[in-house]
Fold this sequence. Notes:
Elements (H helix, E strand, L loop, with lengths): L2 H21 L6 H14 L5 H10 L1 H19 L2 H13 L3 H19 L1 H18 L5 H13 L9 H6 L7 H27 L19 H22 L5 H16 L6 H7 L4 H31 L4 H19 L1 H15 L3 H12 L10 H12 L6 H25 L2
Helix pairs in contact: 1-2, 1-14, 2-14, 3-14, 4-7, 4-11, 4-12, 4-13, 5-6, 5-7, 6-7, 6-8, 7-8, 7-18, 8-10, 10-19, 11-12, 14-16, 15-16, 15-17, 15-19, 16-17, 17-19
Amino acid sequence: xxxxxxxxxxxxxxxxxxxxxxxxxxxxxxxxxxxxxxxxxxxxxxxxxxxxxxxxxxxxxxxxxxxxxxxxxxxxxxxxxxxxxxxxxxxxxxxxxxxxxxxxxxxxxxxxxxxxxxxxxxxxxxxxxxxxxxxxxxxxxxxxxxxxxxxxxxxxxxxxxxxxxxxxxxxxxxxxxxxxxxxxxxxxxxxxxxxxxxxxxxxxxxxxxxxxxxxxxxxxxxxxxxxxxxxxxxxxxxxxxxxxxxxxxxxxxxxxxxxxxxxxxxxxxxxxxxxxxxxxxxxxxxxxxxxxxxxxxxxxxxxxxxxxxxxxxxxxxxxxxxxxxxxxxxxxxxxxxxxxxxxxxxxxxxxxxxxxxxxxxxxxxxxxxxxxxxxxxxxxxxxxxxxxxxxxxxxxxxxxxxxxxxxxxxxxxxxxxxxx
Length: 420
């Protein structure tokens, strides 16, 4: 097979697999198609076995980070922390739908910042849905708040999104530099997304509800330990981030420590927490690493490098806007995880400026708020809703995304590019 035909075959197979991951024929797990695609690339000899193993090894830091964050989120769910947070929001809403919306959005910001956007999508969403059902109010405004804030707040801190580790290729900036670069864009992203969501759902947020419908929810001793443990874990991870160290291994180690500390002295619930984690995310990510490695060798990386080198000749603001919106559009078409992997390799190979690399991150994190296929967090959000018997069509999400994503991304990138 010629080099050209070899590259075309890799592109066709990889894009077909990405489509299957996003479409999930017969509701099959996404991980099945990712692993099958990686195996197909190896078995057809389009990708050498050693190259596939090398691609899988590159994701070690991401796997450990994801495992730790998912385990922390599961400990919180198992011991009622999310149910308590959602119930507190209902009680403090004092019968106001709008106030409940504000509180749910605020809880979403907190959970995303400290536990990653996947935790907001997977664990907070069902808790919020249970609360609004008891309150007998239209659930979609509150569910959309969970979905959109999971991406809008996903660059508040380095730990807020696994994609942050991917884009910076395991070399995250120290926390002080991260906050200097991203705090204002994140604040504007969170605030503007809230206002646009409110504008989109304002008719459903008028009126009141039964303020006592949630009922009292109390944290027992283990629930309290879980909440304290998660706050301490977040603080430790921020200290590690401030030192510029990799986050994967310490996240996993800290999560295991919290799990055992919360379960002591009888260690009840350890197996339940471990069993209920969505471990299928890990082979999904590993399979995507193999697919992206193949695409990079088939020409995706040179194309991306050429595009970034071209943008480097533009003005600071124009280049940042083009990079963010280009990457954001690609993320909605192909999902932000593979696009983030290609973007990470391209920014490093092109020697992209810090502003251009930060713009790529904004496109990866915030851009996916346009469509249901844009980010792993949104896909997990959809899966969580389907389990509860709720279907949100791609068209309905797109209508909200068209209203909310482009102006928010524009605002965030301008804040990034114009900052000193």
